[in-house]
Amino acid sequence: MRKKLRNTIRTKLPSFSAIFGILALWQIVSSIGWVPKYMLPSPVDVVLAFVKEFPLLMSHMRVTLVEAFFGLLLGTLLGFTIAVWMERFPKVYQAFYPVIVITQTVPTVAIAPLLVLWLGYGMAPKIVLIIIVTFFPITVGLLDGFHSADKDAIQLLRSMGATKFQIFRQIKLPSSLSYFFASLKISASYSVVGAVISEWLGGFHGLGVYMTRVKKSYAFDKMFAVIFLISAISLLLMKLVGYLKKRCMPWEEK
């Protein structure tokens, strides 16, 4: 136990030291006035703004998290379905894979105004935008996982008379799990960013709406506070995916 704790401290110490060093440098630059405080508030000012605005931030955060959750859930289901269909039917892969790639070359900020125009200022355009940005990593990750399955094991099952579904369930699906969780980690962080970007362009609640309001009032300490909150939410979601991976794939930890 002590050895594990020492290893954890030894591993995390460089990154924590780097973060502390950056914050200390930031505080010094802001305190001596190299950059005006209204443009670059100090870390202490940001913390004070976060504490002062905490109830309001939590209220907006709840809306953003709901949007991110449903968008990520539907994006994951869509990505899984597309990947299974492409793996099952090569013609579907050849026909639609280029289309899926093209959907990711269009900037998110260019799609968002159209979605708001078509679907209004409610939650629907936000969720659709999150689906668009989250399904792609899931689809590509799962396809890579399916293709990495052990060919000899597949041949063995075929020689034993296994059906395509049995080969998929016994060989291909387990082989793709690590790829799936790696993709899900990326999609989880994308979901929060996608929700905030969509809220910039219209809406009544959410961290993106809060950001546009504090930007108009030049309250940069509150702006930094919400940026750090968004980063913290993304990190927590990625940690949660890592925990789910450990629970679903305990053999990976051995």
From TrEMBL:
GO terms for cellular component: plasma membrane. The keyword Membrane applies. It is a multi-pass membrane protein. InterPro entries: MetI-like, MetI-like_sf. One of its GO terms (biological process) is transmembrane transport. The lineage of its organism: Bacteria, Bacillati, Bacillota, Clostridia, Lachnospirales. Belongs to the binding-protein-dependent transport system permease family. It comes from the Bacteria. Keywords: Cell membrane, Membrane, Transmembrane, Transmembrane helix, Transport. This is Binding-protein-dependent transport systems inner membrane component. The chain crosses the membrane at residues 65-85, 97-121, 127-146, 179-203, 223-244. PANTHER family: ABC TRANSPORTER PERMEASE PROTEIN HI_0355-RELATED, ALKANE SULFONATE ABC TRANSPORTER-RELATED, MEMBRANE SUBUNIT. It is found in: Cell membrane. The keyword Transmembrane applies. Residues 61-241 form the ABC transmembrane type-1 domain.
